[in-house]
Amino acid sequence: GAEGSTLMSYFSKNQIQALKPKITFSTLRDLQCPVLQSNDLQGKPEESCSTEELFEWLGAVWNQVSLDNKSSSFLSTYCCPEPNTVVEKAFLCTITGFIIPETIIQLLEQLCCYFGEPKLAYWLTLTVHGFADSPVSWRESEHGFHKGGENLYNFVIFRNLDYWLQMAVGAHDDCPP
């Protein structure tokens, strides 16, 4: 009707276009990484790190926090959990925008191809953040912003294609079963 044609002319006049996701790449050199075992979620002293330790470490990497525990650092004295290994080169790719579930599945499939030859990586991660002030969360609940607006899940995929799925939501949100 008339409303539809008015809206169409408004959008065409103002040249409003769908925003393409923004993609940024960075290379992290000599990165301390936790040692993980796919079948050991709790970790074992001197053998592997736990899922919680990994999640905390990922937060430091995303936020470019130094991992060397310098007492002179004003921002953080965080250090990589033990045991860890130094990776000469790690890639961090960030895609920002409105991304549909089908695209996330495609990204997961592409990442799994990385385990083909040459087999350099032992594990990799894919993290999906919802917007902190998103109106919706999982299930039927509204998303409660409250303090931090946590709203994310993280896949950790291993070379043998085992995987962990970690989820974080605010205290007032529902989480999938």
TrEMBL record:
One of its GO terms (biological process) is endonucleolytic cleavage in ITS1 to separate SSU-rRNA from 5.8S rRNA and LSU-rRNA from tricistronic rRNA transcript (SSU-rRNA, 5.8S rRNA, LSU-rRNA). GO terms for cellular component: multimeric ribonuclease P complex; ribonuclease MRP complex. It holds the Pfam family Ribonuc_P_40. One of its GO terms (molecular function) is ribonuclease P activity. It comes from the Eukaryota. This is RPP40 protein. It comes from Acrocephalus arundinaceus.
